[in-house]
Amino acid sequence: MLEQEIYIKDIQPLNSTPSFVQQADKSGGLSPIMSGQFRYDTFQSGLTTHATDAVEEQDANISSELPSGISFNFLFSGEIDYSLGNKKYRLSKEKGQAVQGSIIVNDANEILTRHMSAGMHVRKLNIFVEQQWLTSRCQTAADHQVITEIFHQQDVYSWQPGKSAIAKAEALIRLNNEKTLAQKLTSEHLTMELLAICLDEVYRQVKYEQSEKSIGIRSTSLSLKAAMDNSITTLNSLTEIAQDLNMSVSTLQRKFKKNYGMTVSLYIKQRRMDIAKKSLLLEDLSIGEVAYQAGYNHTSNFIIAFKRSFKITPAAYVKLHKMR
After folding, report:
1. How many CB atoms lie within 10 A of CB 38?
2. Please, are residues 151 and 107 in contact by the beta-carbon 8 Å criterion?
3. Cα 48 to Cα 66: distance, rounded to the nearest angstrom
4. Structure confidence at residue 191 (pLDDT)
5. Does 49 have pLDDT greater than 50?
6. Phi, psi at residue 198, to the nearest 5°?
7. What are the E-state strand segments in 57-171?
8. What pLDDT does residue 149 have?
9. Are residues 140 and 196 in the same domain?
10. Secondary structure (3-state) at 158
11. Between the chain's N and C termini, which has fewer beta carbons within 10 Å?
12. pTM of the predicted model, to two decimals?
């Protein structure tokens, strides 16, 4: 890859979801945030790679909404600090260790904040694959069982990549930035091979059996949930949501309870709280404004509900993701 100066404007368009950026530098994005080598590739709408060999030029926090998926990370040098949800993590290598790997399994949309430190030289590769991308390529019931179990809950853990995986990750980092067909095909080929190795690492941790009937129920459940999520953002009452889904309130309540084991009203409260959590970071709103959007007339009640849901207050959550 060629040496280059990387600015906030170069990073922001890389995500389809809105991003919140906080910089110690007050140049308004006119100063580079990194300098060195940086490449971003997208393959088949749901599979992406970041290859970085650069020095972070300033302290900054970059927050974005991470969709349901798996992030495989190969750290060759430096340290990476980030927050996911209400927890902070650090990825670093031990002395004498060639590469440190980590895997982030994200089972639902969540806010991820990358904390950058001026002077830190980071050499890394990241592969991110969305859950829907994996699910659409499942060929058997066994494949679906594995994917279902992988995304059973959010998890972050360390792993030590093998020699083959390290070699392919190294090759991806070393690729140049030429916008040619040959370069694109080489990058995609290496990424697919490396993804297969990474998924095998996840598979080894999966010991879960599920019948095809259960998988069918899960699929129906996900479809209903997706439809609900679309309605929740624009409609207020349960009656309006049911009408939008072309069913009666009683039918919606019965189907939702059967598939999820919870009432529709409880899910709506939880989902709106998730939306509120995202708004605190990505829409730069005050806690009071977010509380009102979530349907709370009193901010104090919203704070209590937020802490009950996420085990952290709204103010503490914002502080966790903002400038250290």
Report:
1. 20
2. yes
3. 12
4. 94
5. yes
6. -65, -40
7. 60-66, 69-77, 79-84, 87-92, 100-106, 110-116, 121-130, 155-159
8. 81
9. yes
10. strand
11. C
12. 0.67
